[in-house]
Amino acid sequence: xxxxxxxxxxxxxxxxxxxxxxxxxxxxxxxxxxxxxxxxxxxxxxxxxxxxxxxxxxxxxxxxxxxxxxxxxxxxxxxxxxxxxxxxxxxxxxxxxxxxxxxxxxxxxxxxxxxxxxxxxxxxx
Length: 125
Hints:
By secondary structure, the protein is mainly beta. The protein has one helix spanning 90-98; strands at 2-3, 6-17, 29-34, 41-46, 52-60, 64-71, 80-89, 105-106, 111-112, 117-120.
């Protein structure tokens, strides 16, 4: 997809695993790559537990294409269930988190304010 220049946050709720648990934590990451950086990593956060929301920030100097990625298990037949994907400006993310109680997702009909929210809000340069 294409998004305007600026600071952005990609967030996802990692709900569970098809295997009933994580096999290992190698290469478990929520991340963003951009055309602007020749598809190198632009923002990421590693995850070590499920049942939590993870959010990573990224920056675009100019309007550009992005890939939103969720890397999961490396073993055959394993997967991570995810939902409630959110892409918003960094300012909007801060505004959501500053609410009482802090909001981590909304879709016009539902709002969530989970206890477990992990953030990496410094884009990779």
